[in-house]
Amino acid sequence: MSRSLGGLALVCVLSAPALAEPVRDQMFIETPAAPPVLTPAGSIPYNTLFINRCTGGCTVRAGTTDSRSDHSSLAGGTAVIQQFKGTDAQWQTIMGCIKDTFSVFNVNVTDVDPGAADHFEIMVAGYSSNLQNSQIGANTYGVSPYPCGGPYIPDALVFDFANQFIDNPNAFGNNSVEEEICATAAQEIAHAWTLDHVIIPADPMTYFQYTGRRYYTNGPAQCGSDCVGGRGPFGQTCTGNSHVCACSGQQTQNSVATITGLFGAGPGTPPIVTITNPKTGDNVSPGFPVGATATDDPAGVAKVELRIDGTLVDMLTRGPYAFNSPSTLGNGTHKVEVTAYDMQGTPGKATVEVVIGPPCQKPSDCSNSTDTCIGGRCVPGPGVQGGLGMPCGAGTDCSSGQCGNDGKNMYCVEQCTKGQCPSNFGCLETTPGSGMGVCWP
Predict the structure, then answer these.
(1) Minimal CA–CA distance to 120: which of 59, 73, 188, 174?
(2) According to the model, what pLDDT value does residue 42 have?
(3) Which residues have C-beta within 8 Å of that of residue 311, sequence separation ≥ 6?
């Protein structure tokens, strides 16, 4: 550990002194002059994360870190970061990966320069030597300021030396260059939000090799993976490859909780779920089988759950996703719901309604007086919360799980064919000529 740049920062060297081997990154402690106070959580007044490919080169000047003016305490003077040397296709892949990584947070990831507006920034370009700082090794692939005096560095600017990855595609294992650049971007900016390295290979905060996309850990993650000679980057004593987290002094950190606490939660990218059998309106027997598909590229699906009428029946962690419904189900209409979760816990779902026993012919055949009959099944009718034709904003507002939108109005809908809808509703085709549609007021 040694001092750098006017005493403003501390640099931790994470390899042998000569830095002959590739180094994932280096962290410099930089305490904001007036540490921000966050009350309540998620109250950072801006959430833009600018991914800068440095087209034509980026000029970075020494000084207090400020992404708006491209000043950095890590620059050894006026430095020029060479532009991203990869292809446009590689850039789009990297951007898609970074957006996916941050999809569970209220973070606006963009490669459009916000200019003088407050923002966080990752320069995904160039080489470590471009910064002209002798304390940053030539084989370092990322570098970031690291706050110990506040929850984040305002307008933080960090560096992900993408051109070094492109020149040395297997420097950190057999993962793709694009995934490694993406993971390094996630690691460097998270350092500016107080996060340390961890020992979980599937987390972008790790030094360990991993094949596939890394996601921040939503749970306690032991700090470490960066020990050299029995010491962590800030002198912590290592047990194996574990040590206390820098600044906090705790053994673990929760990356998802930390970032959510800064920005709030985002919508995530839900898996795509399809129930292949049964179909809506099928007449089935108790114990009927349920088949489904669930996909979520590129990381895959963590688990898939089956619910009947809102009650959890079964859960699978790998395909094929084949279930059996309870043998105790009684006559009537039953809602079949399959929910898949991605590796970040984002849910995606599909629903169908099936009938056990004689299909209804008219609303009076339904045991619940507020139900109506559509295609032989009894469903909540107009005037009931979540029922057919009730205003909605999303599928979760509707008992069917389907909220229709004609561009002007949004109503809860049920699947139908011509002639199946109750009074005051028609079967509006969703695909012209198919005969299939939804009941619409």
Answers:
(1) 188
(2) 59
(3) none
